[in-house]
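User: My instructor asked us to take a sequence, write out its structure as tokens, and then describe one feature of it. I'm not sure where to start. Here is the sequence I was given:
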Amino acid sequence: MSGEIPPELGGLTSLVELDLRSNQLTEKIPPELGNLSNLTWLYLDNNRLSGEIPPQLGGLSNLRGLDLRVNRLRGGIPPNLSSLPSLIVLDLSSNQLSGDIPPELSNLPNLEYLDLRSNQLSGDIPPELGNLPNLEYLDLRSNQLSGEIPPELGTLANLEYLYLSGNLLTGCIPRIPRGVARIGNDLSSLGLPLCEPTG
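Assistant: Let's start with the prediction itself. The structure tokens for your sequence are:
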């Protein structure tokens, strides 16, 4: 399948799942998809989509999974994606997204999987990400993130996988959650010392 995503799909308001992955779709994601109020899963990954992520997707209050990886999306991550209370999976990896990671993403209480690797994201890692109680997988590899690793990540009790290499991080490596498996992180490749315990 090639060409644009028809904006008319936004009129299928009873649609629960939209799977258009692994095609040759081009042009922008139509903002009309934000009208699919019953949508729970949106798969647009592995295409050639460009332009920015439409902020209208932040209105999909029933959405549980948003997969836009491996496209050519530009611009910033819309902060109002934090308005998706049911979201479990957010995968925006392997695009050309830039700017800061919105701290508002910490308002996703059910988020378990966050993959932002292989973009052009910059700035600090928001310490607010430590407020995601159900997060199991966090991948921020291969961006332009700087500053120190926030110690708040150590409070993620359910975290099992943590990837931060390929950035411009400084400082020391804070205590990581006990559940992070040895094969589930790349912290040793950062070339940073462990933070000294305090108190």
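For the description part of your assignment, you could build on this observation: The mean pLDDT is 95. Try explaining in your own words what that tells you about the chain.
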